[in-house]
Amino acid sequence: MRNDPAQFRTMYRRALMALRDSEIPFLIGGAYALGLHTQIHRETKDLDLFTRPRHCADMLKLFADLGYPSRMVARHWLGKVSWEGAVIDIITGFRNGVNKVEDSWFDHAHDAVLFDTPVRILAPEEMIWSKAFVMERDRYDGADIVHLIRAHADGMDWRRLIDRFGPHWLLLLNHLVTFSFVYPSERHRLPEWVVRELSERWTSQNSASGAEICQGTLLSHTQYCHDLERLGLLDARIKPIGTLTQENINE
Fold first, then answer.
1. Sheet strands side by side (includes 86-91)
2. Mean pLDDT over all residues of the chain?
3. Taking the CA atoms of the chain, what radius of gyration do you get in angstroms?
4. Full-model pTM
5. How far apart, in whole angstroms, are the C-alpha atoms of residue 84 and residue 245?
6. Cβ contact 114:29 at 8 Å
7. Are 33 and 127 in contact (CB under 8 A)?
8. Start-end ranges of CATH 3.30.460.40 in the chain?
9. Backbone angles phi, psi at 89, to 5 degrees
10. For the domain with range 5-122, which CATH number is right: 1.25.40.10, 3.30.420.270, 3.40.630.30, 3.30.460.40?
11. Residues 149-176: b if buried by 16+ CB within 10 A, e if exposed
12. pLDDT of residue 51
């Protein structure tokens, strides 16, 4: 039967076991990692696998050899594997070009078991960082972020999280404010020094000057076309401001 969740799980288990046998390094992200971190489980047809860019082609070939149609969707961040309605996304970086999967993601990953298979999953810091940029009209990962903070606030490496956001630290502050709104009785779980440091950065920030840039494109692939096409703002994804070319964005 098509679209049978049991079939999806069988496919995913086979894929994970084949990956382990191949020794291609990978990490679990997405809804399955979120469930392991927060115990909020969503039945999904998508399995997100994160790997370094140099391993993507090997992973696609491995799945193709197993009989699963596999293709590169966007060279700078995404490959895709499909079978009977189930989908495996092979993710090597952010769609907006802000970052790529690197060794440190593996250094901080957590051990877990998924579909009876020992795996490693993204650390909460990397999950928050990657989800913070997902603000599409039809998909917003803010709820996942506040759930991750609620589950891990006490053990979070907050300095590493701030460093992860780098020049985009204001986006982290935005999600901390959202957490405080969603869980007003748990605001105390956010370290005072984190809130103070980010707030002081914001209040001391000089007014912007120079070229008019739209950073909304780092958050949504579609919702800021008006700003680029009609208002003439520069796209924060595209070189020399960002890391991508127009060809990357069109993929």
1. 70-74, 78-83, 86-91, 46-50, 27-29, 117-121, 110-114
2. 94
3. 19
4. 0.93
5. 34
6. no
7. yes
8. 5-122
9. -95, 125
10. 3.30.460.40
11. bebbbeebebeebbebbeebbebbbbbb
12. 98
In this predicted structure, the answer to whether residue 121 has a pLDDT above a threshold of 60 is yes
- The Cα-based distances of 119 to 95, 104, 217, 228 in angstroms read 24, 17, 33, 42
Give me 231's structure tokens. 């208002």
pLDDT of residue 201: 95
User: What is the reported pLDDT for 207?
Assistant: 66
Helix (H, G, I), strand (E, B) or coil at 199: helix
Q: Record the tokens describing residue 78, joined without a space.
A: 């995404």
Q: What is the DSSP string of 4-72?
A: -HHHHHHHHHHHHHHHHHHT---EEEHHHHHHHHHS-----SEEEEE--GGGHHHHHHHHHHTT--EEE
133 with 171: CB under 8 angstroms?
Answer: yes
| Residue 43: CB atoms within 10 Å | 9
8 A C-beta contact, residue 175 and residue 143: no
Max CA distance (Å), the chain: 60
End-to-end CA distance of the chain: 33
Residue 211 amino acid letter:
A
Which amino acid, 203?
T
How far apart CA 114 and CA 18 sit, in angstroms, is 14
Helical (H) or strand (E) element with 214: strand 213-214
Per DSSP, what are the bridge partners of residue 78? 74, 91
